[in-house]
UniProtKB/TrEMBL annotation:
The organism of origin for this protein: Alteromonas confluentis
Protein name per Swiss-Prot or TrEMBL: Carboxyltransferase domain-containing protein
Domain (Carboxyltransferase): residue spans on this chain: 8-207
Record GO terms (molecular function): ATP binding; hydrolase activity
Stored NCBIfam families: 5-oxoprolinase subunit PxpB (TIGR00370)
């Protein structure tokens, strides 16, 4: 199968899947290419489509092998009317954070790694507009890029066995929010009271690929009262 447009490579994923890899000038442009193809495929909604899963630079297409073969899927996607610009029409989310919450507080470690003060860390994090590049690892776990160069920090040498729900974190040039209690090795900034994943909801994950996110600080009292206010 030959590459086309922004699709640079195509690989099989078992008997019922194709992985389309995209390339462009930078990660944002590549992400836009993935998202645009994903949106076009969802809008077309062919009867053979079982699932389409976007990631940083790829789109996994799972199809019904009794309804179509891989060549038919390739031809269908090749002919899709896909936007060729680098604009993603996602939602913007403003997420509150209780920075320095005792259960999720690596601010001292981050300060040591970056040379920033705690206020400097918070100010830099809240001044950044992040883009959702992928959702994975756990349901509703969104990989948000790109952090400012000054907040580029490594993962912890010893991952935690349990990170609390709502922990806002940094690793490398990314930020994220843990949607469930789970193991994790990212550096923790604080907690958000906003649910990232609601099982059973029509749209379970709050954040989706192409959305943008900004964070803002709240105090402990606001955090504790959030469920009452929401």
């Amino acid at each position: 199968m030959q590459p086309f447009n922004a699709v640079s490579r195509i690989e099989h994923a078992g008997l019922d899947g194709l992985i389309l890899y995209f390339s462009d000038n930078d990660i944002q442009a590549t992400s836009a290419r993935v998202s645009n193809c994903h949106q076009a495929l969802k809008a077309a909604s062919p009867i053979w489509l079982r699932e389409a899963i976007p990631s940083f630079d790829s789109l996994l297409v799972i199809f019904d092998p009794y309804a179509i073969d891989d060549h038919g899927v390739y031809q269908f996607i090749h002919q899709l009317p896909v936007r060729q610009d680098n604009v993603i029409a996602g939602k913007h989310h403003r997420i509150p954070v209780w920075y320095g919450a005792p259960e999720a507080n690596d601010l001292e470690d981050i300060a040591r790694l970056t040379g920033l003060s705690k206020d400097g860390i918070i100010n830099t994090h809240t001044a950044t507009t992040y883009r959702v590049y992928a959702v994975g690892f756990a349901p509703g776990f969104a990989y948000l890029g790109d952090s400012a160069d000054s907040l580029n920090v490594p993962r912890r040498q010893s991952p935690r066995t349990a990170v609390p729900v709502g922990a806002v974190a940094l690793a490398d040039k990314q930020s994220a929010v843990y949607p469930q209690r789970s193991p994790g090795g990212w550096q923790l900034l604080g907690l958000t009271p906003v649910a990232m994943f609601r099982p059973g909801a029509e749209q379970p994950a709050l954040l989706n690929m192409g959305d943008t996110v900004s964070f803002y600080g709240i105090d402990e009292d606001t955090f504790r009262q959030w469920d009452i206010q929401a």
